[in-house]
Amino acid sequence: MILPKTFAAKPPHPTAAIGIFGGTFDPVHFGHLRPALELLEQLPLTEIRFIPCRHPPHRQAPMASPGQRLAMLELAIAEEPRFTVDDRELARSGPSYMVDTLASLRAEQGNGPLCLILGTDAFRGLPQWHRWAELMELAHLLVMKRPGEPLPQEGELKHFLESRCIYDPAQLAQQPRGLIFPLEVTQLAISATRIRSLIGAGRSARYLLPDAVWDDIRKKRLYSAPLFMPEQ
Ligand SMILES: Nc1ncnc2c1ncn2[C@@H]1O[C@H](COP(=O)(O)OP(=O)(O)OP(=O)(O)O)[C@@H](O)[C@H]1O
Ligand SMILES: O=C(O)c1ccc[n+]([C@@H]2O[C@H](COP(=O)([O-])O)[C@@H](O)[C@H]2O)c1
């Protein structure tokens, strides 16, 4: 017997979480992608959504345009079906505050678990974020160790971390928000700043990011002086 679609369709796993990976992604690189894949494999996540910010509230404007950064992200995730790109911040005017992004995701997801993914450098800057205390009312935090960027060793943020810290992945799926999971991921000392400066100096960024992204950068002459096309 063929069941009607409403019976046949499997509902999403009731205890699975969604990973939210915000960033400037100027450009996206393997330091984002490899740790994200490791989180998918180790944690009860159904997908990781990469959310490029339009107007970073905390740093200089990106060099590549929103459309160019979005295109690079789409090329970067094409081979991994559990990676998705969400352009909601690009469609919003004003500073791209994460609290607004998580509130809009929460409105869509109901009470399902959301996990905001951050490197240790971004985590240490958390008290400077807009309405930062509200973030924990909206999502869990997954804090990925980044080379040369230790977790806070003292002060308010250390206490904030210790009072919410968990090490059992199953707990992430058992409640919708409010926990912090620090994670060891493969340490890749890659940054978008370094990639931009290599390209600006006329050097190659190959093998620091996916080939498709590197080809796109060269094709559009991003991050370089107008005449730079060294690997034609
Ligand atoms: N190599 C890396 N390992 C772990 N986390 C990373 C790494 N690179 C970036 N991240 C994390 O990814 C998120 C988005 O980072 P972002 O897009 O700003 O990249 P970036 O390389 O830090 O860029 P930039 O050098 O321009 O500041 C942040 O939470 C950051 O901590
Ligand atoms: O909401 C804020 O005030 C805020 C302040 C600093 C950073 N963020 C977000 O943190 C994410 C990582 O930032 P970055 O600079 O490492 O790309 C990205 O999604 C930013 O929009 C958000």
From TrEMBL:
Source species, domain of life: Bacteria
Source organism: Nitrosococcus wardiae
Catalyzed chemical reaction(s): nicotinate beta-D-ribonucleotide + ATP + H(+) = deamido-NAD(+) + diphosphate
One annotated GO molecular function: ATP binding
Gene Ontology BP, a term: NAD+ biosynthetic process
One Pfam family, short name: CTP_transf_like
Protein name per its UniProtKB record: Probable nicotinate-nucleotide adenylyltransferase
Span of domain Cytidyltransferase-like: 20-196
Top class in the EC scheme: transferase
Membrane-spanning parts: none
Function of the protein: Catalyzes the reversible adenylation of nicotinate mononucleotide (NaMN) to nicotinic acid adenine dinucleotide (NaAD).
CDD domains in the record: NMNAT
Family designation: Belongs to the NadD family.
